[in-house]
Structures are given as C-alpha cells and as structure tokens.
Design brief:
2 copies of one chain form a homodimer. Chain A is of the alpha/beta class. In chain A, 36% of the residues lie in helices and 27% in strands. Chain A has 3 domains: 167 residues, Rossmann fold (3-Layer(aba) Sandwich), CATH 3.40.50.720; 158 residues, Dihydrodipicolinate Reductase, domain 2; 85 residues, ACT domain (Alpha-Beta Plaits, 2-Layer Sandwich), CATH 3.30.70. In chain A, strands 7, 8, 9, 10, 11, 12, 13, 14, 15, 16 and 17 form an 11-stranded mixed sheet that branches. The first copy, chain A, is elongated. Chains A, B: Its EC number is 1.1.1.3.
C-alpha cells in the first residue's frame, strides 16, 4: 500500500471536529477505499484548551493556520476557518504556493477569489476541491465538474439555504408568521443570532456564484447577483400560493439567456406537484438542466457538522485516490485561464411568470383599471382571483391576486408602478417570480 | 496539451451513435475541460452499411468488437453492446487483459461478472467505469464510489425502471388499467415488445445488485434478489393507496439488517408527501442513506440515448483527466479482493409496514376473525378501512383495506394464509410493502 496521505486541518469548529473524529474512527475502511491511509498530521485552531471530544495525540498543533500551511508536514490543507479574507485566504494561498493540495468548505472565499485560487492550483498541478462549499453534503460540485463534462448547462437552481427553507416550511405547515418561525429556527440552532446573511439571501448568493461559474464556464461574479430575501413573505402569500397550486421557496437561479447570464436569489413560486416543491425543512436541493443529460435534481442535507464533513472527506479521499500532481481536474471544470468573462443579463429583461398580490380600494372600475395596466404592458394573465372585501376601520379594500403568463421583469415593474400612480393601491404590492422546471 | 485519449466504441445503437455524435460535435470544449482531446479511433458494430447519421471517416471499423478490443489503437474500450455474456464480456475481458481501460453501460454484465472484471482491472491499474449502467444519466455510481467514501450506508433504494414508473404514473393519473398503460408505453417506445424483463423487475434487479455491492462493500449477488413485478397492480390498489396517503412505485431496495443484506424489488407504497413519491413518468430516482452524510436523493433521466451517452462521456472524461495507469479508484469502491461475501437476509425476516387488501364475504364476524388473525401474529394496525359492500351476482362481498405498523414478512404471510384457510376470503389477497424514507 502507498504511504499515508498527510493532511492538516485548519479550523476545529463543528465541521472540523466531525472530520477529525470520523477520520480517526474509520482509519481502516478509509485506507481500504482509498488504497492508502489518511493521516491527520497537523491541526490549527484558536483555542488549544477547548475540549472538542477528539483525540489530537501525535498531531502537531499550530496556533496560526498560515504557519501550518507553510510549515506543516502536510500534503493537503483542509481549510474550515471560513471568511473571504484573513487567515482562511492566506492559508489557502500559502498552501498552493508551496505545492499543497487544498480542500475547503469556504463559499465566501471561493465566491470572492475562486478564479485566482483555481489558477494558482492549476499552475502547480494541484487539486482545489470544495464540494462542501455548496449545498453541504450534496455532491453537486462533482456532478457539474465531472459527471456533466461535455454538457451545455442552461440553468441551475436550488434551495441552498436550510434556514430559509425551514422558516418557509413552518410558515406553510403551521400558519405561523415569518417572525415566529425565525425565532423558532434560532431556538433550534437553525438560524444565527443575526440571521440577516441567511434570510436576505447572501448565503445563497455565494453558493450560486460558484455554481454559475461551473455551469457556464465563466468567471465567478458574486457582486452582480439580484438579491431579495424572505423577510417580507407573509401568510397571505403562502396561502395564495397554495390556492394557486404553488409553494414558496427561496431559490438561487443562474440561467443562460440571450442577453447574458442571469443570477438571482429571491422567493419563488414553484408548482406544487414538482419534486423540488416537496423539499422541506433544512434540506437543500439543486437542479441542473443540461442539453445531453437532461434534468438532474439532487436533494440532501445542506448543512450540519457531519454532512459537511462527509463532503470534505469525499474531497480528501479523491486526492488520496489520485497521485499528487498527476490528476488534472480543473477546479472550476475548465482551466481558470479559459473561463469566459462573466456577462450579466439585466434583471429587467428576466422572462417568466409572476405572482402579483395587491390590496386595492373596493370601488367600481378598479379591476378594469388593473386589467388595462396589465394589457398596456403586454402582460397576459393565467389567472386572477379576487378575495372577499376586507371592511376594516377605514375604507373597504379587497385583495387581487394575479398569476401572469411569461412576461418580463420590466413589464411587471412598469405595470405595478402605473397601478400605484393610479391611486387605488393600498400598501405595498407583493410581486413573486414563478420558476418552472 | 497532452496527447489525445484514443477510444474505441463497441456497439453503435442509440447510445453509441449519440456518443459518437456528441464527441465529434464537442471536440473543442471537451479538450478544454479534460486537458486533452478525446479521439474516437475505432468503432465496432454489426452492420457497417447502416446510416446512423454520424461521421466515421478516419475511424477504423471492426466487424468484431473482440478484435477491436485486442487490436484497435485504443486506450479506452467503450462497451455498449449489452448482454451478460458473448461479445460484450469477451471484448471487456480482452481489453482489460491488454491494459485498456473500460467504460461500460452494461448492467447485466456487471451484475453477473462485476467482481471478476473489477479484479482484472485493478490488477492492471485500469479504470472500469460504469455510471451509465445504473439509473442512466444520474451520477449515482460516482456518488457512492467517490463522494460517500468513509460513510457507512444503511439503505439504498430507488425507482430504476422508467417503463414501470411510466405505467404506474399513467394508471394513477388517468385511471387506466395496467394492460392499457403497457400498450401505450409500447406504442411510445417506452416499453419493449416483450416487456417482461422490465415489468417483472429483472432490469431493476440488475441495477440493484450493482448498487448493493457499492453500498455495502460486498460481492455482487444478482440471483438472490426477491422479485415481484407490477403486473398485478390494479386500479383498486392505486385508489386505496391514494386514499391512505400513499403512491405505488416499483422500488429496488437494498438494506443492511442484522440478519444480512436484503435485496428486493417489488411494488411499494411510498408516503405521498415524500420527494420520491413525486417522481413521475420515465424519470428515475435513487436514494442513499448513510451515517455521516445523511439522506441523499438523486432524480433524473434513467434511460434514453443522450442521457445514457452523457453518463458514458462523463466516465470517459474521468479517464482523460487522470493519467492512464495512475488513478486508483477501485471499480466497486474498494478493491475487489477486499469485498466481503454477500450474506443474504431472509425475506421472511423483512420488517416494515404492509398494505393488505382483501375481498371478503359480507357476513357477521368476518372483521372480528380478521382482527384475530392479525393479533395472533402480533401485527398491529395503523388503519383499517371497509369499503361499501359489492352486491354482484353472487354472495355479497366487501373490501377490507389494512395498513399495518412495522411487522415482519413472515407474520404477514402467516396471517394472510390463516385468513385464507378460514374461508371468508374471495379471490387473491393483495399485499404491498410500505417503504418509508
């Protein structure tokens, strides 16, 4: 059997501790599967004294991950520190510069610096593996980078944030408000104390940016993603969606269009009888549409120490199975220098169906006025539902819910803004895009 | 750039012709992704004069695939002939003996001879890739063989036969009989003129046998699979399933139990609100349950020339990206010589819920007698539904539908056979196993 593969783990949080424990516990079976042992020779974390429930005897401790990357007796750096800059980035750069393979779960780092890091890895014939960075344990990077070689991908989309999907699922199943579900998610550890990054879609955007590059062979562009979170989704939207045969999911979508590549993260109506609509709770799902294979959907755990550690371990095992310096898998599916520049499609040109919910004053002629504004903007309606008048303290109002046939974002914006200036709209109109498989 | 990878394609049916066309059309992008060109240098098929709509100029033609495997100027044999024996097997054996990598879509060959072929490949340091053999375009082999390295898998199951799923879906959606749906499937080319192999579950069994070995690190055993097809599923079953919150799918299931490994293919009730229950038509789905990653489900096209060719191409690309003779991925996830013997769990020990539909004579005491037989066998009921009496020409009968809590196959068989000897059962009782994620 070949010599053991020596790895250094930077970051001993939930994922890092899981990984160390699993590699210790499964030494023998890993050696059988990989054709050689995987040995943790070095680790790095902030607090040396913390009890993580793992055995670190015989492992060299580094206080500084960059020091470990530069000087550790390692062939692979496993970076689990997180963050787009700072120690994570420096350690990864130092490892690649020195001829050490890198496995990382760091989506922010890749979304910001993925192309440069891929180029650095390729220059040295090193592997840069990052399965855990997108959709946790779901092997979506491997599918795009390896299985789909030769395919032209037209669209990738998915539920890539467990916190948001948990909240939306509970809102739907239990009729609770967004705020109550968020509190519950925080109590259960599914949401951070400051949940902004998850619920406003930034986390999904990071993952989407990486998938976009793999799908379309273009450079990563994380700043140009259209972003809309789930905090303004109400019970009214959820109920209206159900009535119309849809469920609401926070999707990240990247799509090739004539005008460029669309990257968008927003609450989305998906038809109730599709597979992705049934993905509930913290589970993630990623769909890939390609021209030879067709439609592929992968569903699984998108977070959690063990699930993420599993993806990291798969990446490490891939390196153990290949011989260092020999494998030629390009980190982003094709050599970094052959990636095309990212060409952004304008959001106003997005085409699709729309759900529009309006509260309007209940008077004669309003429906006709709304219909005229839709027609003025060449929007044709798939359905229109009027909900019973709501006679609160003020003037009576009613709710109008419309689902459009395919139209453009610009048309919808123009129509809604014309209606607002018409003066019969009460409150803020709700507009949710529809995505169909 | 490295030299082109030379491949020989044996078999130019739908998949072979797709593959040749795609490799020609996408030469450049494949070369970019793989770091070198993929070149078809040889092909073999029965009829040289047939117009397949593909360009074979400059390609060496072999009438005999074994001759091509032995003498073609090739580094990879792509075997698309099919069949467990004969030319397919001889060509693969000849290629491996000669130091040529093999990519195959041949599930029958692998189910029968997979271990021996894996051993032959490993002895020479060759790759034996067979993504297309199970669930067509869905990268389930790669997920099990690579992504899940280090995981202990407890169960794999899936919808792996598009013909059966198409028939069951149409029966459910349109209320048609099994026979009518089968005819329609034949008319549309989704079923063979002789559909036995598909509808009786043999095709699913071949795929399951391969997955079982990958999942549990055991030898392949195709002969020991419990087999039950879909031809006796009636509209009554479909409607009763819907009423109870289930859908009927033909599943292949492999499961680790205390008594050994269960391998079974049978019509199965799956809860309506699960993701796999929503997989309709010819689409396939495979679920893998493992201890670190958790539950992974992959959904996609399980057949068709292009989808299958995509999987074959992914396998070829993996070889192009590695350097021949260097990669150490064991064909079955671990070296063939380290596979454990297959230990079969007895079907009578299978534990799970059961759906039981009985037609009984409508007389006092029958329900009590049925309940007693269930209790005698320690079977507890989740639900029991009695359907309105059917007053045909003969004695009046009624239908009893029961869903059990988890019990054993033996208990159910004993209970049903006791009821049959009691004399109140009319016709043949229907028993369908329930599978829960």
């Amino acid at each position: 059997m070949a010599e053991a593969l020596k790895i250094g783990v930077a970051g001993l949080g939930t994922v890092g501790a899981s990984l160390v424990r699993i590699i210790h516990e499964r030494q023998e079976s890993l050696a059988v599967s990989c054709g050689r042992a995987i040995e943790i020779t070095a680790v790095s974390a902030r607090n040396r004294d913390k009890d993580r429930g793992i055995d670190l005897s015989g492992v060299t401790w580094f206080d500084d991950p960059v020091d470990m990357a530069k000087n550790g007796e390692i062939e692979v750096l496993v970076e689990l520190i997180g963050g787009a800059d700072g120690a994570a980035r420096e350690a990864v750069e130092a490892a690649l510069a020195r001829g050490v393979h890198v496995v990382t779960a760091n989506k922010a780092l890749l979304a910001e610096s993925g192309v440069a890091l891929a180029a650095a890895a390729e220059e040295k014939g090193l592997l840069l593996n990052f399965e855990a960075a997108v959709a946790g344990g779901i092997p979506v990077i491997k599918a795009m980078r390896e299985s789909l070689t030769g395919n032209t991908i037209s669209r990738v989309y998915g539920i890539m944030n467990g916190t948001c999907n948990y909240i939306l699922t509970r809102m739907e199943k239990e009729g609770l408000s967004f705020e109550d579900c968020l509190k519950e998610a925080q109590r259960l550890g599914y949401a951070e104390a400051d949940p902004t990054f998850d619920i406003e879609g930034n986390d999904t955007a990071h993952k989407l940016a990486i998938m976009t590059a793999l799908a379309f062979g273009c450079e990563i562009s994380c700043d140009d993603i259209y972003l809309e979170g789930i905090s303004n989704i109400s019970q009214e939207d959820i109920r209206a969606a159900a009535e119309l045969g849809y469920r609401i999911k926070l999707l990240g979508v990247a799509q090739r269009t004539e005008g460029g590549i669309e990257q968008r993260v927003h609450p989305t109506m998906v038809p109730h009888d599709t597979v992705i609509a049934q993905v509930d709770g913290v589970t993630n799902a990623v769909a890939i549409e390609s021209d030879i294979l067709g439609d592929l959907l992968m569903v699984g755990p998108g977070a959690g120490g063990d699930a993420t550690a599993s993806a990291v371990l798969g990446d490490v095992a891939d390196i153990a199975k290949s011989r260092p310096g020999i494998q030629t898998v390009a980190a982003l599916g094709r050599p970094a220098k052959s990636l095309t520049p990212y060409k952004k499609a304008r959001m106003r040109s997005h085409e699709g169906g729309y759900f529009i919910r309006l509260r309007v004053v209940d008077r004669i002629g309003v429906i006709a006025a709304i219909a005229r504004r839709m027609a003025d903007n060449q929007i044709s309606l798939e359905s229109i539902v009027q909900h019973s008048a709501n006679g609160g303290g003020e003037a009576p109002t009613k709710t109008i819910i419309m689902v459009t046939h395919a139209t453009t974002e610009l048309s919808v914006r123009n129509a809604v803004s014309a209606m607002e200036s018409d003066g019969y709209i009460v409150g803020k109109p709700q507009v949710i895009r529809i995505e169909k498989p």
